[in-house]
Amino acid sequence: MSAPNKSYDPVEVEALKPEEIERMRDEALAAIAAAAGLEELREVKVAHTGDRSPLALANREIGALPPQAKAEAGKRVGQARGAVNKALAGRQAELEAERDARVLVEEAVDVTLPYDRVPAGARHPLTTLSDRIEDVFVAMGYEVAEGPEIEAEWFNFDALNFPPDHPAREMQDTFFVKPLSGGSETDAAESGVVLRTHTSPVQIRSMIDREPPVYVICPGRVYRTDELDATHTPVFAQVELLAIDEGLTMADLKGTLDHMVRALFGGDLTTRLRPAYFPFTEPSAEMDMQCFACRGESAVNPDRPCRTCSSEGWIELGGCGMVNPRVLTACGVDPGRYSGFAFGFGIERMLMFRHSIEDMRDIIEGDVRFTLPFGMEI
Ligand code: FA5
Predict the structure, then answer these.
(1) Which residues line ligand 1 (CB under 6 A)?
(2) CA 28 centroid distance within chain
(3) Fewer beta carbons within 10 Å, N or C terminal of the chain?
(4) 113 phi and psi, to 5 degrees?
(5) Domain boundaries, the chain
(6) CATH number of the domain at 125-374, out of 3.90.330.10, 3.30.930.10, 3.90.550.10, 3.40.47.10?
(7) pTM (2 decimals)?
(8) Which has the closest alpha carbon to 348: 242, 232, 175?
(9) What is the predicted pLDDT for the residue at 63?
(10) pLDDT tens for residues 330-353?
């Protein structure tokens, strides 16, 4: 074992001289006090307390000192490091407080300022209702079909068994776009042009475009020269339903209508058919649904009047019937093999009785105060 190095003088170790330790401490304290931000303080911390900092390096020298010198040198370095760490923590707290105060000012929100965002829109209740109706039929396997709003007279009338001079054409007051060209009224190419008065021409287009069986639902906008009033508008929306298959009967029509009103209005509501006339269906009927508000009770109980159905117990919904064989023939469908049913109604009227809307003008005027309460139904 070698003898301790008695000639070793700790005072001679440069880094451990008291004035040197003081200089390191003061340099660190000055750098800490001068750090203007938290990022800068982080760098100062690494430089003056990290493994390669002057005080850390001086600390390492202590291990090589003889025992009698270690305590004093350790105390001196320890005090210097303690002072530096304390100053660091103090400056850190100061800078954090400054940052928080600055963020509060810089990111302050003036909640009294008027907002500039465009309010979220809502779908129009007519669209929502039309989508719901489509959903009911799509769930039964029907396909959604569409057609043009500017329509050949042949599709709007002739193919639907409205003969040119027949008074039935007067049933729907028509906007004429282009009169007959003087050619044959049995040919779409030679036909006049109208704004379609109903969605029934989409029946014709669907039968011509598809091989039977055909199951389509045709929603769309239609036009009539009706005056705008509480129950009429010249532009309104209809939904048409068409089913063509082998062996379809009025019972299938009735069952389909019953299902529709139950799906849309709930419960075990029923429908009834009253004789009517449409050139394109034979037999034809007007369809009424049982009142969903009083369930028919107001008609038999004078003590329970009902505003929804005017105490009739029934609400008129639209026209329907078995597709006239002449229409099938005009579309190239063999009436000996196929039969079908059709149904059409107005969406504005359904929306009116569904939500107790008294004036149709409220629906079409586009005032958001009317549409907003219907919310953002999808
Ligand atoms: C038709 O338009 C037939 N195409 C319906 C049809 C289809 C019958 C298939 C048979 C088979 P109508 O002209 O009755 O029928 O009109 C149907 C519905 O449109 C009416 O019940 C009513 O709800 C709505 N309607 C008619 N005129 C207006 C109008 N000016 N404003 C708002 N809704 C209207």
Answers:
(1) 172, 198, 200, 224, 226, 232-233, 236, 238, 240, 278, 281, 318-321, 342-346, 348-349
(2) 61
(3) N
(4) -65, 145
(5) 10-106, 125-374
(6) 3.30.930.10
(7) 0.70
(8) 232
(9) 81
(10) 999 999 999 999 999 999 999 999
Residues 6+ apart with CB under 8 A from 366: none
Closest protein CA for atom 8 of ligand 1: 319
Closest-CA residue, ligand 1 atom 9, reads 343
Order of strands, sheet of 176-178, starting from the edge strand that comes earlier in the sequence: 150-152, 193-195, 176-178
Are 290 and 313 in contact by the 8 Å Cβ rule? The answer is yes
Nearest Cα residue to 125 out of 350, 299, 308, 358: 350
The DSSP letter of residue 119 is P
Number of C-beta neighbours around residue 68 at 10 A: 8
Helix H or strand E encompassing 272: strand 271-278
